[in-house]
């Protein structure tokens, strides 16, 4: 398999790496298992010191690291910097809070369970495999690694093959910060080799962020081995705008919510569901602001839309747009490959969508927005829930009854009111339906890969 940095702005190969064979893969698993034994001799305070040191390294190296992210997957440089600093924040968050999140929980009145003492404890599982995507190449890995390491687990990362230098940076980061050697190790393996790693007795659990197909495969393997898995898959998030909303503000945030990271995010808003009373106004503003986005070299500070990360990603998004237009969708903006080297695609807005169009049911992983006109709240919720995904949602209303209805009835892992979906270290992140199961981040995320152990003394 090819493990290489192909700059999406130019299409040129910038670095290539050899895949790990079975012997090297096994050696790295052994190293991770040995590091788990070493971590077992440490306390939260020691791990927190190392985690804060990793955060300081990220902050000190933020510019070079951001440029690495941009060269490997094409995100605008300002967004790459923000990603690096967000990772440092997450490291500090878990350094500061892990001991509280995983503190023993004694039963207030142990006599209720016929004991002198009863307590719930949280213990690490061991070696955890993470299979991660390229779209947020640092953040996706850090939001797994920070809680896993602070809980006392060790980590193996099978990263996407197009971001190998980011993977190598992470491979070294935690060791440089003081964690025992092998606490975090990268595996340069192909998708076909993941199964053997999951089935290895030394590996105790697996987490994946990626496509629905990959998630189903990994979950099935983990299930057959009776191993814990956390699965975060795609999204087709609704962005609902009601008459009571601030339409100007909603349209501005809508553009950011759809086109940040060039639209390559599972949690980007993708379907814009707008009440008929303000549909025309919202559409005019949204289309105007979409057309004004600056497309170009992502190293340019003024650029807002970079290339797609891979040539296949661009072809996939173009095929969705072409299918919709062929079946009668209206093209309000974009819809073409600009005359630039690399894998660029114009920010695109479609309306007049029908159920036979692929974009209605499939995830659009790129800079394409779908507009829907609705007559009332019930119709908005019906369209919001008609997709097989359930990751997050954004609703815009200043009506308390509408807000309560959306929070109660939208089928998703999160509802953001009058704001775009953002992942925060402090809040759990994950979905339902075909968007996966389990949670990352927050108190819930660090507990996913622990043994919730009951201790009873009579």
UniProtKB/TrEMBL annotation:
<keyword id="KW-0521">NADP</keyword>
<dbReference type="InterPro" id="IPR044148">
    <property type="entry name" value="ALDH_GabD1-like"/>
</dbReference>
<feature type="domain" description="Aldehyde dehydrogenase">
    <location>
        <begin position="3"/>
        <end position="455"/>
    </location>
</feature>
<dbReference type="InterPro" id="IPR047110">
    <property type="entry name" value="GABD/Sad-like"/>
</dbReference>
<dbReference type="Pfam" id="PF00171">
    <property type="entry name" value="Aldedh"/>
</dbReference>
<dbReference type="InterPro" id="IPR016160">
    <property type="entry name" value="Ald_DH_CS_CYS"/>
</dbReference>
<dbReference type="InterPro" id="IPR015590">
    <property type="entry name" value="Aldehyde_DH_dom"/>
</dbReference>
<dbReference type="GO" id="GO:0004777">
    <property type="term" value="F:succinate-semialdehyde dehydrogenase (NAD+) activity"/>
</dbReference>
<dbReference type="GO" id="GO:0004030">
    <property type="term" value="F:aldehyde dehydrogenase [NAD(P)+] activity"/>
</dbReference>
<keyword id="KW-0560">Oxidoreductase</keyword>
<protein>
    <submittedName>
        <fullName>NADP-dependent succinic semialdehyde dehydrogenase</fullName>
    </submittedName>
</protein>
<dbReference type="InterPro" id="IPR016162">
    <property type="entry name" value="Ald_DH_N"/>
</dbReference>
<comment type="similarity">
    <text>Belongs to the aldehyde dehydrogenase family.</text>
</comment>
<dbReference type="InterPro" id="IPR016163">
    <property type="entry name" value="Ald_DH_C"/>
</dbReference>
<dbReference type="InterPro" id="IPR016161">
    <property type="entry name" value="Ald_DH/histidinol_DH"/>
</dbReference>
């Amino acid at each position: 398999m090819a493990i290489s940095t192909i700059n999406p702005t130019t299409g040129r190969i910038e670095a290539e790496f050899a895949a790990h064979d079975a012997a090297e893969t096994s050696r790295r698993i052994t190293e991770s298992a040995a590091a788990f034994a070493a971590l077992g001799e440490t306390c939260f305070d020691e791990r927190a010191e190392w985690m804060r040191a990793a955060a300081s390294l990220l902050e000190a190296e933020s510019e070079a690291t951001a440029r690495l992210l941009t060269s490997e997957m094409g995100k605008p440089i300002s967004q790459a910097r923000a990603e690096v600093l967000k990772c440092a924040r997450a490291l500090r968050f878990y350094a500061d809070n892990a001991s509280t999140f995983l503190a023993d929980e004694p039963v207030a009145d142990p006599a209720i369970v016929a004991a002198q003492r009863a307590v719930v404890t949280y213990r690490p599982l061991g070696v955890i495999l993470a299979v991660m995507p390229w779209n947020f190449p640092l953040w996706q890995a850090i939001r797994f690694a920070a809680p896993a390491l602070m809980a006392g687990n060790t980590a193996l990362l099978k990263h996407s093959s197009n971001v190998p230098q980011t993977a190598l940076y992470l491979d070294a980061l935690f060791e440089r910060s003081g964690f025992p050697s092998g606490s975090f190790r990268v595996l340069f393996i192909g998708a076909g080799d993941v199964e053997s790693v999951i089935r290895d007795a030394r590996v105790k659990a697996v987490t994946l962020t990626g496509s629905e197909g990959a998630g189903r495969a990994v979950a099935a393997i983990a299930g057959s081995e009776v191993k814990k898995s956390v699965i975060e898959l795609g999204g087709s998030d609704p962005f609902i705008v009601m008459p009571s909303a601030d339409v100007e503000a909603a349209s501005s945030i809508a553009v950011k919510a759809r086109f940040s990271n060039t639209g390559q995010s599972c949690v980007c808003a993708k379907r814009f569901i707008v009440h008929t009373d303000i549909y025309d106004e919202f559409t005019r503003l949204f289309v105007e602001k979409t057309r004004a986005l600056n497309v170009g070299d992502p190293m340019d500070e003024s650029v807002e839309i970079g290339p797609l990360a891979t040539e296949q990603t661009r072809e996939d998004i173009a095929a969705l747009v072409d299918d919709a237009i062929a079946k009668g969708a209206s093209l309000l903006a974009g819809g073409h490959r600009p005359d630039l080297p690399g894998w660029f695609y114009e920010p695109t807005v479609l309306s007049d969508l029908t159920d036979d169009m692929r974009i209605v049911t499939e995830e659009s992983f790129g800079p394409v927005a779908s507009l829907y006109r609705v007559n009332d709240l019930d119709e908005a919720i019906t369209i919001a829930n008609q997709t097989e995904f359930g990751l997050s949602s954004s609703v815009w209303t200043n009506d308390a009854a509408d807000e309560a209805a959306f929070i109660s009835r939208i089928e998703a892992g999160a509802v953001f009111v009058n704001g775009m979906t953002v992942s925060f270290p402090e809040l759990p992140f994950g979905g339902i339906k075909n968007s996966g199961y389990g949670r990352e981040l927050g108190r819930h995320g660090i507990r996913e890969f622990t043994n919730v152990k009951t201790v009873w003394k009579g």
